[in-house]
Specification:
The chain is of the alpha+beta class and 113 residues long. The chain has two helices and seven strands, in the order αβββββββα. Strands 1, 2, 3, 4, 5, 6 and 7 form a seven-stranded antiparallel beta sheet that branches. A hairpin with a 4-residue loop joins β2 and β3. The protein starts with a helix and ends with a helix.
């Protein structure tokens, strides 16, 4: 089990590691925007930025070209990092398949850190 210091480091690494944060694609889909709630900045794929009008918190949110979003944050009550994925498709089965693809890609990504 990782200690809370390791989870803090994981969030720092996620903010710096180019494969997800500065990459143009994740799991085969273009990363269109990254929201970093610790700095209140949304960065689009073309590098333009805008403000996020929400309270600052240790959260990263990625918006992908297929409409999927991935939100990453440390738990406030347990020593773990939480990953949330929102996606949709024409059928429930297709949406579940897309979700499974992203879950697998995230597991591989975190294991590589």
């Amino acid at each position: 089990m990782m200690g809370s210091k390791n989870f803090t480091q994981l969030m720092v690494t996620l903010r710096k590691r180019p494969r997800l944060r500065n990459s143009t694609a994740f799991a085969g889909n273009q990363i269109e925007a990254v929201e970093d709630f610790s700095t209140s900045v949304k960065t689009l794929a073309d590098g333009t930025t805008s403000s996020i009008d929400l309270p600052q918190s240790n959260v990263l949110k990625y918006w992908l070209s297929d409409g999927t979003w991935i939100c990453i944050r440390p738990s406030g009550t347990e020593p773990k990092v939480k990953f949330y994925i929102g996606t949709s498709d024409e059928t429930d089965a297709a949406a579940q398949q897309r979700l499974a693809t992203y879950e697998s890609a995230l597991k591989q990504y975190v294991a590589s850190i």
